[in-house]
């Protein structure tokens, strides 16, 4: 029987731990605050931003929502970010992506103070991760590390194969697994014979955004499979990058979609906000 890794339960435990710590700060009259900026009204972004605000409310972090119109200029957005960088009451700054086409995402991310970069997307945060220094860690891969650790799955000495090389998931995932002493392989769209590599994985992370791409022939018997995908199947049903029904019986542990990696991302965002408060006030 495979172990179904329950991301909803584990993320709930993490949020409860954070809530306790935020409550303790509140008793001393201290407040943690996250500023969330959304430009325009991309419907998916609106849902993500709403979920982030709900999580803040749950753990007791103040959320400052800035909803800017689609026509906002890059300079106006950068001015807003600079203002938040300077505001000592704001601990974390998150600019919801994607931004409208007339904006330069890299320039916007680079404008956020690395001290307040709770998404972990700033080049300083990315660099710190790669050389083992303190910085903020991208929430989805950070959440996956927590899922594995809290499920008793050891990474030390294991072969971890990551499918996908995005800046938000694949690349930081590789760095984090290296830090846990795993041997790491990244496969992507230009990798020949992907299956030969994924079949060697003790831990397989699928982050490619392709509905049910990972079938049983990609997976070694007894492997741990982590599914980062959030896709819709032909009936509009939410599903991952992994064909769960087919793959689950071969695995020793697997994350479902929904209820696996998804809820962890926001829990780790809350963690990073509290951590930002601590670093700014120590
Ligand atoms: N868009 C999709 N995922 C994310 C995320 O984790 N952070 C931000 N800022 N935007 C996103």
How would you describe this structure in keywords?
single chain; 282 residues; Rossmann fold; 3-stranded parallel β-sheet; 10 helices; globular; binds guanine
Report on this model:
With 282 residues, the chain is an alpha/beta fold. The chain contains ten helices and eleven strands. Strand 5, helix 7 and strand 6 (183-187) form a beta-alpha-beta unit. Helix 6 crosses helix 7 and helix 6 (139-150) crosses helix 10 (262-280). The protein is globular, with a radius of gyration of 19 Å. The mean pLDDT is 98. Residues 94-97, 119, 139 line the site of guanine (GUN).
Chart the SSEs and their pairings.
Layout: E1 3-4, H1 7-27, E2 33-39, H2 43-59, E3 62-68, H3 74-86, E4 92-95, H4 105-111, H5 123-130, H6 139-150, E5 159-163, H7 170-179, E6 183-187, H8 194-198, E7 203-206, E8 224-227, E9 231-232, E10 238-239, H9 244-248, E11 253-254, H10 262-280
Parallel strand pairs: 1-11, 2-3, 2-4, 5-6, 5-7, 7-8, 8-11
Antiparallel strand pairs: 9-10
Helix pairs in contact: 1-10, 2-10, 6-7, 6-10
Q: Brief overview, please?
A:
The protein is of the alpha/beta class and 282 residues long.
Name of the CATH superfamily of the largest domain: NAD(P)-binding Rossmann-like Domain
Small molecules bound in the structure, each named once: guanine
Based on the structure given, which CATH architecture of the largest domain is correct?
A: 3-Layer(aba) Sandwich
Q: How much helix is in the residues?
A: 40-55%
Largest sheet: 6 strands, parallel
Label the overall shape: globular
Helix/strand/pairing category: alpha/beta
Q: Please count the helical segments.
A: 10
* Strands in their spatial order, largest beta sheet: 1-11-8-7-5-6
- Fold-level CATH name of the largest domain: Rossmann fold
How far apart are the termini? 47 Å
How much of the polypeptide forms β-strand, as a percent range? 15-25%
Low-pLDDT residue spans = none
Order of helices and strands, N to C?
EHEHEHEHHHEHEHEEEEHEH
Number of domains: 2
CATH class of the largest domain: Alpha Beta
Count of beta strands: 11
- For the CA atoms, what is the radius of gyration? 19 Å
Question: Mean of the pLDDT scores?
Answer: 98
């Amino acid at each position: 029987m495979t172990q179904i890794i329950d991301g909803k339960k584990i993320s709930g435990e993490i949020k409860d731990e954070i809530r306790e710590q935020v409550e303790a700060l509140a008793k001393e009259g201290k407040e943690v605050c996250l500023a969330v900026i959304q430009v325009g009204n991309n419907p998916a972004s609106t849902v993500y931003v709403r979920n982030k605000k709900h999580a803040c409310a749950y753990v007791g972090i103040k959320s400052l929502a800035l909803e800017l119109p689609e026509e906002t200029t890059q300079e106006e957005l950068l001015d807003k970010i600079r203002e938040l960088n300077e505001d000592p009451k704001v601990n974390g700054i998150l600019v919801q992506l994607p931004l409208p086409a007339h904006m330069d995402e890299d320039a916007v991310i680079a404008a956020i103070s690395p001290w307040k970069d709770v998404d972990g997307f700033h080049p300083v945060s990315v660099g710190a991760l790669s050389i083992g220094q303190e910085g903020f860690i991208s929430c989805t891969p950070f959440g996956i590390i927590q899922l594995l650790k809290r499920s008793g799955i050891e990474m030390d000495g294991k072969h971890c194969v990551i499918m996908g090389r995005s800046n938000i998931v694949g690349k930081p995932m590789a760095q984090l697994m290296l830090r846990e002493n795993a041997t790491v392989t990244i496969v992507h769209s230009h990798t020949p014979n992907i299956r030969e590599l994924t079949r060697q994985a003790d831990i397989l992370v699928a982050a490619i955004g392709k509905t049910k791409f990972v079938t049983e022939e990609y997976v070694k018997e007894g492997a741990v499979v982590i599914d980062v995908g959030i896709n819709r199947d032909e009936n509009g049903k939410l599903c991952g990058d992994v064909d769960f029904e087919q793959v689950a019986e071969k695995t020793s542990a697997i994350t479902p979609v929904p209820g696996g990696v998804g809820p962890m991302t926001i829990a780790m965002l809350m963690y990073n906000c509290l951590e930002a408060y601590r670093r700014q006030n120590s």
